[in-house]
């Protein structure tokens, strides 16, 4: 039990605590930087840390920090900091040689009312001195303009877009000029809504719905458009002010909740109200904002105290663009139309709209929206091209210095990839400017170094809804492969990491994060692809621990270098929302000679630290030794903090167990020599050995003797037969334990298979102090040493057994289930070769045989058989542990035959297999014995006729008489055989004619009848399973004439069945039923009758005369007279 516990502890340590020390060596935190740690980029001496949401002067600029373990974080000054309104730092990268850094900030600017959100990237050299600025989107636009203005130059194939003419029409200044322009104040749109009594409640609801649709559609293309609404009727009131636009849902709800005022149509007063109470600074209006007024009314002005002309001539009205919408039949009148024309700005065809009713307002919705957005200079609608591309959202360096910029918002958020080559040429790559809208291509980018050239990889997490990763050829810039996600909404491609696993300069693996992959929540997943012949082949999938349903595993993936010092780079994966309170975790995966291990070697949870962290693992970086202790460190970003963790040196042992003597001699086995054996254990280090004299590495060891044997053959000399444990302190001068004395016991059961000596070891680490070393997870922490037995097998020390097998088989090789009760086989085994160790006979037999017993002769002891696990296999140990040369055994094995189930097979076999373990497991002999198999069927047939005799006279000649045949089936049909009964009844025998009237069966309905032999015979065939079946055939018999005094009608019945599956006795399967027909003769002569009668009377008279003569009657008379006289006397 102790041995099992040790193995469990070793497993737990390997998984949960490999060589990242779980106590941080440094935690960085800036009081005014709540978003510190959004991304981390480790370099040789420190960490570049972004804090994109830092505020300066009430504006969100973001900061970049340089953090060193030996000091604190200092801000890196970027000269572009003061050039624009908003610049969150969102990405950072370094070149492969570490000499150049690139940091991209997203600048939000406005020209007129068009939004522009794009990256300006700062190129930094060592020491973070700024070399230059790069505006990747502007570079692409300039390149496209040059391509489109040169008619004789073919459009560059790498710019897979068809938007040159649209760009040519755009009057855009250079990026530097744009940055210097003042911020646009936006657009203010005020609705003037008629709520008078002439409008029904239903139409007023339609008017409100029209207003909300305009607001929603304009907001899709105008980010700084704000709305107000004034309703007029009996009163005039502001229903929605310009200040109430911060939350669109709230503004739309306020419009929807408006209650109609009713009564008058005070249009002029309402327009005046907009000028004096809506477009004013105290109610949220900006002086330089463009102002639009939209009047929606159902008729001309009524009972208004103000004059429309006076209001229109007010100075403030000159800066307002007015739209007029007239609803209903009133605007067929000249006065109402004139009033509507006065309200609308010129020209009327662009600013005046008329509809027949409120239900028709939706018909002008797109026209009104187009007119409004046309004023705003956003006629391109949702196709923003590069204005909102966020170029630099993700960045990476290729090994040749090419820079990759992700432009996630380009082409209406279809996205793309901007390539800046070392010669400053620019390429824009995407799938198509017209396909897969909102795919977010450029969300992540990575440069791959293949055997045949570079590849540029970019993630599009919303491509085809389930996400994709596009792979572009670095030379032709064509898209050569698309890797597709497997689940809608999983954000497959949100994170990319390329890994040169074996550190040979060629990319081996691509890791793709899908942090929103969901089963019960948002668990996340990472997909591992191997690069093979220029294509990525899926190799495996990784997931975090199952119990965390909202971990977002795969939000960050980083190559952290060879932290375990085995020559292969390793990976860290962030799960920033894993754990209670979304504290977060990271997982470590180790590279090795065949790739990357599929199971993590270590999970580091923020909850294990003393400090409270949130979103630990949102970013991660490694590859450098920050504290200069000779070990790679890794940096992990969380919300507002960066944690630095150190790796521990990994030691690799090659332990040796040396035995003296190295084998158990024949004399030791016989007890003639001493049974003592000496064992020496040494822990030889092959990596990160102990060099300092002051260092001691405690090793916990556990030594087990003969672990797989219940009866031990070796013990410790102190009497413990099982195992010993201890702690050995490894130093630079001591690698071996003191000799351990062992003692050979005996080998009654097994004197051939070597005695195993198993050594387990682990480091005796303390949770209080930093470990000096850790064991390599990929190297074994268990070794096994074999202590062989000396054998008597000649000079070559190799025993070659040769065992013959002969078998006595029964004469009848047919097994009848239900009849045959048992089966016995006699075996003779003879070893005509050298000693056979651990000889085993394995008999494999069918399931209906049940092992009964082993029969041995007195001189053939040393054989035992058992089948404890498999009821169809019998294992016999033959002369254990050694079957000597020239030895012979005879034995019999018997089985009982199971009768409870029918056997479908027509044949079966018993296989004999003889093995030994002389030189590993060897098969010596194989034999197969085949038997036929049938099922027993006990069945017989009886029959009778009613009547058995038929008497015929001349008077009954030709008349029909009834006849009935009855056949009864008897016996046992325990295996449900289909028994076929055939009954043949003669229809004509000489001058006897038989007619079948009917037939019936007691149980079966599977019967058929038909004449045979040209109508001479009637055959009834029935298939039955019930053995109490009674078959009855009713017939009529007519005798035409009988030449002889007697004739016989013979009916025959016989049984048949599948003889391949069943066996039955021959007797009783055939039955004959005989019906005898006899003729009776009647005499009819009158003379004979009369003569006989007269003769009789004469004879009677003669007899009476004789009696009289003899006195017969007289004596009786005299006696009667005497009796009469006597009575009288009395």
TrEMBL record:
Annotated region (Disordered), positions in chain: 148-186
Membrane-topology annotation of the record: Single-pass type I membrane protein
Positions with biased composition (Acidic residues): 176-186
GO molecular function per UniProt: metal ion binding; signaling receptor activity
GO annotations of cellular component type: cell surface; integrin complex
Domain VWFA as annotated: residue spans: 188-368
Record field: transmembrane: 1086-1108
Protein's UniProt keywords contain Glycoprotein: yes
InterPro entries: FG-GAP, Int_alpha_beta-p, Integrin_alpha, Integrin_alpha_Ig-like_2, Integrin_alpha_N, Integrin_dom_sf, VWF_A, vWFA_dom_sf
SMART domains: Int_alpha, VWA
Sequence similarity: Belongs to the integrin alpha chain family.
Name under which the protein is recorded: Integrin subunit alpha E
